[in-house]
Amino acid sequence: MKTELLQLCPFSPYLEQGLAERHTVHRWDLIDDSDRFLDEHAESIRAVATGGHIGIPADLMARLPVLGVVAINGVGYDKVDTVEARRRGIRVGTTPGILTDDVADLAVGMIIGLLRNLPQAHAHVRDGHWPAGDMPLARKVSGRHFGILGLGNIGLATARRLAPFGQISYCSLQRKDVPYPYFASVRELAEACDVLVLAAAANASTAHIINREVLDALGPEGWLVNVSRGALVDEAALITALHEGRIAGAALDVYAQEPHVPQALREAPNVLLTPHIASATQETRRAMADMVLANLDAYFAGQPLPGGVV
Ligand code: 8YV
Fold first, then answer.
1. pLDDT at residue 295 is higher than 90
2. Residues 239, 104 share a domain
3. Residue among 14, 50, 75 whose CB has most ligand 1 atoms within 8 A, to mutate
4. Which CATH number fits the domain that encloses residue 162?
């Protein structure tokens, strides 16, 4: 008999097919009466498959008594209570390494898109405005000083891509063996750099690390780029800073309450906004799917998870 798995969000057809071949899949995001569903199925759900941006709500985990594994289609496990998972012996698996290149690629693309006004340039041609006049001049990318917050795999891959464009500095929990200047404080990094790129994991020590003070240190000639998690940024402070011109602009792929983006942020000047697409390429999502399935297969075979974090 197939094991019962709870799927918390939509996945690619490839991953959904792989899950359905192995498990009896229940779609949590499509269930109307969640209490009734849990009354009927909670005692048999042994696996959860979810996205990094969702993890598993603590109250749902608490209601699944035989849950043994949470397989995340992503690298972030900030939305899983890992202390409780460890206490209950629940394994947690992610897709480490696989999406590093895509996220770093997007960070570079967003920096160029933001400073060179690429969305506006595209609209200028597509909407037929060009014959009426040229666009306002944009800002130069090369020669900038790029500050990276978080020098894990993604931060390092971003730094390596940006190094040919200008100077790199970073702020991380620990100093790394890299040829870039280290800043112990994100405020000082923001003060020194032109473009501050967020690539750190979300946790208690990075929650709202980008606050009013850091934004003011970045200043009216500084840009913020976020490809990690919305939780790192005090979004209200960012919105105010953008509307008041206290920073030059922001390129954001992640938000505090996805998929809801406050209207004041959507209408802010000098923003480039994307809907959490950093790992969303066909190639990477397929490789991530294989790792999700490998984590589940390993768990049910009694083996260590290849992408295990708990
Ligand atoms: C995914 C992510 O968009 O890896 C992560 O932590 O946030 C993203 O790559 C998300 O997990 C999609 O399921």
1. yes
2. yes
3. 75
4. 3.40.50.720
Q: Catalytic annotation on 46?
A: no
Please state the pTM of the whole predicted model.
0.96
21 is catalytic: no
- Per the domain annotation, does 231 fall within a domain? yes
Q: Which residue of the set 4, 188, 191, 258 is catalytic?
A: 258
> What residues make up the domain containing 203?
100-273
User: pLDDT-based confidence at 55, cuts 50/70/90?
Assistant: very high
| For ligand 1, atom 4: residue with the closest CA | 74
Nearest CA to ligand 1 atom 8: 74
Can 276 be counted among the known catalytic residues? yes
Atom of ligand 1 nearest to the CA of 74: 4
Number of structural domains in the chain: 2
* Gap between the Cα atoms of 278 and 251, Å rounded: 12
For residues 211-238, one letter each, b for 16 or more C-beta atoms within 10 angstroms of the residue's C-beta and e for the rest, the string is: eeebbbbbeeebbbbbbbbbbbbbbebb
Reported as a single tens digit per residue, the pLDDT across 240-265 is 999 999 999 999 999 999 999 999 99
CA nearest neighbour of 93 among 28, 47, 42, 155: 47
**According to the model, what pLDDT value does residue 206 have?**
98
